[in-house]
Amino acid sequence: MEVVYFTITAALLYFAADRLLDAMERRAGRRFEQRSLIFFALLLGMAIVSFAVLRRLLDS
Length: 60
Known about the structure:
Blueprint: H1 2-28, H2 35-59
C-alpha cells in the first residue's frame, strides 16, 4: 500500500510544482530560460520533504 501512497504523492507534487512555476513566471512577467531546471529543483525539494513526512507517518 505504501507504493500507492508514494505514487499519488508524486503525482500531486508534479502538478503542484508546475502550478508554482507557472505562478512564479506570471509574477516575473516572462518565461524563465532555465524552466526545466527550476521545475526540477521545486519538485525535488517538495519530494524530499513530503516523502520524509510520509515515511514517518507510515512507519508509526
